[in-house]
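Q: Could you fold this chain for me?
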Amino acid sequence: MRELNWKPEQSAELSVLGEEACAGSARILEFSGKRMRLAAGLPVKSGAAVRLEWDGQLLLGQVLNTDAGGFWMEIHHMLLDTGALSWQKKAWQRG
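A: Sure. Below is the predicted structure, expressed as structure tokens.
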């Protein structure tokens, strides 16, 4: 089984989804179970849906709570090798 590959202070691209959509960079601070702590310059609110992507890994989740140092997100979905999907996209577009 593949595991999430990250390092403390790992840079990632963060997107806040929904009505208050915005995008920017973030840093991964901690990872515990299904939760990840992030620091970002984006305005995020508790309950917001977010997308986090780095090094071919994609996470979808929800902001649990925020504080001055960042926020915790709960991971709902993970895709650990987005590069492996490129063949499927190309085949689908041809046919």
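A (continued): Strands lie at 10-16, 22-32, 35-40, 49-54, 57-67, 70-79.
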